Amino acid sequence: MAAMECNRWSRQIYLQIISYLLISSAIHSDAEPQVSTQIPAIWSSTHYHHYNELKETLQKLAQDFSSLANVYSVGRTVERRDLFVIHITSNVTDVKPMFKYVANMHGNEAVGRELLLQLSHYLLHNYGKDERVTKLVDSVDIHLMPSANPDGFEAATEGDCYGTKTPSGRENGNGVDLNRDFPDQFNVTDMNNMTAGRQPETLSLMTWIVSNPFVLSANLHGGAVVASYPFDDSKFHKITGQKSASQDDKVFQHLAHVYANSHATMHKGNVCQDDDFKEGITNGAEWYDVPGGMQDFNYVFSNCFEITLELSCCKYPKAENLSVEWENNKEALLLFMEQVHIGIKGRVVDSETKRGIEQAFIQVNGIDHNVTTTKTGHYWRLLLPGIYTVVFSSYGYLPVTKLVVVKKGIVEEVNVELHPIALPHAPDVAVTTSVIPVTFVTPNSAKLSSTTVAPSSEFEFKHHHYDDLVAILKNVTKKCPEITRLYSIGQTVENRELYVLEMTDNPGIHEPGEPEFKYIGNMHGNEVVGRELLLYLVQYLCNQYKIDPHIKDLLDNTRIHIMPSMNPDGYEIAREGDFDGFGGRENANGVDLNRNFPDQFHSTKENAILQPETRAVITWILSEPFVLSANLHGGSLVANYPFDDNAENIDRYSKSPDDVVFRQLATVYSQNHPTMHLGQPCGGQGKLNESFPGGITNGAAWYSVAGGMQDWNYLHSNCFELTLEVGCRKYPYAQDLPKYWEDNKKPLIAYIEQVHSGVHGFVLDKNGNGIRNASIHVVGIDHDIVSANFGDYWRLLAPGNYVIVASSHGYSRSTRQVVVPDGTRGIQVNFTLDNEYFDWLQTEDFGILDNIDDRYLNNIELHNSLLKLKNENPTLVQSMANVGHDGLQTFNFIIVSSEV
């Protein structure tokens, strides 16, 4: 599965550029520390520590606690002061999550500077004495930077609460605000040149951040009392404030709440004049827009989650207030550090060498933000309690998907082995170390990169008979073995294989949480455009997988099955240039396959006996948890949706329960096609001369078709299917095929993306195990779907508000209110069903599931249940009923005896 490309690009490119350009700013230790013997053993917070005293204090702590602490510098300021960090932990060789506090980024916001000095003293002096402190130092790699702007601090004035003095000391020695100086994700210039014009302090901090696998951090400021979380700005840069949520918004809100709720006053939200922060937290951009901030840089360009803590109303209060500030913040400082242990952690190793894999991607489905492993293969991924599908991947390895249950207060350890991808043609593989910039992409992007449009020369635009078709499919599997699998679902009347090409990042298996999609072409043998389009599509996806991040993301997050021809026998007798005829339409038995499926309304001569092709497709549909599908036809230009017929078998609209969803799906294809949406007639006779508003139509409203495949999909599986008429001519000349491809390429991709719309998630029991065949019911829509083997489900829905009920026999029901957003990005909703009834059955009622029901039986159901009990146990049970004078049963009863 894919790790999100924006993070992959930013991390890899940035590391290369920064590591090369900032060698002079690399982390270094102070060569000759000047140790003072005047630092008291018991900390005093009666004054502020200026640069020299701060330096001496840190070095004295490192000297006195040499087994726990050391001091290093990450670089120097404009005025050549060191940016000191005190590193505190026990057993430095142990693998632990890295944590950092950074303070005094604005030189005149001084409280955080003193708090980190006091925190250092507190941790070291209480190690081995206080159980909590000892556990923290033993389990976390702690890095504390008291001042990121020592130059500014030296220019600031104690007692200047609002920064009104000149100079205020807020900026660095060059007069630059360091918390506006970091590369910003919404600034294109920043993305193209990460280092140009940055301040030395900023460059040093950037290098430190991306060179170390920090997990959690906070940036300590002053001038308000609030916990601010990403993002700090938005692409609109609205000065008055507009929320800009990160992909991990819930995690960040939790982290902010942890600090605010543990702070003596922050949780009130109105500590300072004009403060109005609900529960003491705020989204940064919602407060005010801050481009170039450090907390966003941490999240976007590294593994680190950082929030900004505003700790005091007065930026630089009198020193006499420092003891109060320590008491206000001590518990919050400790509890926030402990949050480094939420979510999941583990190690990703090579299955053969057992060595850790560096820069492996840890991607959580539904959260568009990955983290990567350390040099030794270790990782930490902050998550809230819940059920997650996590994908572990790395270049050159097959990905692994895990279903993970994260519990409150416990970090879940998930260790993974990745199997190397065999490269049988290694001599032909060119290895390059160059990095290709890519763009931000998501599974719901409906755009094709303008730079990756396949040129006409990429495909051989001709009609491909059976042997040619097989050759193309096999060639694609050889060219892209890591994302393809060729298989047959059965044989035709004339023993031709019904080939399907599977395309995904981990072919051959259903990955939990990943939806399944299918295209079927050439069901009518003489309607050939769909057959050719699907052959072009598989080649296009193969060719673009490593070039176009959009295509890669689509394949990494979707299991796609493509059957170019369902009727290869009919195709072989059809003829090029037969624009609207019938030769080759049926299979070799002369049966129209799109009239051969069981029908909800009518049993006809054409669907009385299932053909081999039909039977194979039915078995296939029921064997995989397909979510969305399309059946490609020709002879018209329209997107056709269920139902295809009605009880009267007349040409009249036949609405399915999901009519709104089907209309939306049809519109997606039509609107992405250059002419289909115009709804113009093809210019033939009868049905071919009809126009379709918006380029879509209800099947039965066009003409009633009993035994169609699209209706069978909807009624007998989870799969929603459309019938796409992709060209006015059934068997056009080969010279016209490039135009058909150009017209349909974009809608073919856009339609696949719809598989991610609506609601998806897992149905689990209270132990976190997936529940198979659980029912997903949307209130007001009379069509349920069921969960797949891992408890995963996908329910296509149009944007709107819904009430969804998950249920399974032997479990309690779970009901959720859900808002489905616009666009193709769906929303993940997990259900946990209580199986207390099942547990009771196992111990008290012999495990008989039939004894559980969630409703009362009516009289007929009660009578039938008693008859069933009698029939299943004829030697023990006799069912009887009293009948009144009017012929009505007055009551039912059974006799249970060994002498029945």
Automatic annotation (TrEMBL):
Gene Ontology cellular-component terms listed: extracellular space
Keyword Metal-binding carried by entry: yes
Cofactor(s) the protein needs: Zn(2+)
Domain Peptidase M14: 47-340, 462-755
InterPro entries associated with the record: CarboxyPept-like_regulatory, CARBOXYPEPT_ZN_1, CARBOXYPEPT_ZN_2, Peptidase_M14, Peptidase_M14_domain
SMART domains named among the record's database cross-references: Zn_pept (SM00631)
Active site per the UniProt annotation: E310 (proton donor/acceptor), E725 (proton donor/acceptor)
Key word Coiled coil present: no
SUPFAM superfamilies referenced in this protein's UniProt entry, alphabetically: Carboxypeptidase regulatory domain-like (SSF49464), Zn-dependent exopeptidases (SSF53187)
GO molecular function, one term: metallocarboxypeptidase activity
Keyword annotations: Carboxypeptidase, Glycoprotein, Hydrolase, Metal-binding, Protease, Zinc
Pfam families: CarboxypepD_reg (PF13620), Peptidase_M14 (PF00246)
GO annotation (BP), single: peptide metabolic process
CDD domains listed in its UniProt record: M14_CP_N-E_like, M14_CPD_I, Peptidase_M14NE-CP-C_like
Top-level lineage group: Eukaryota
Family: Belongs to the peptidase M14 family.
Protein name, per record: Peptidase M14 domain-containing protein
Taxonomy of the source species: Eukaryota, Metazoa, Ecdysozoa, Arthropoda, Chelicerata
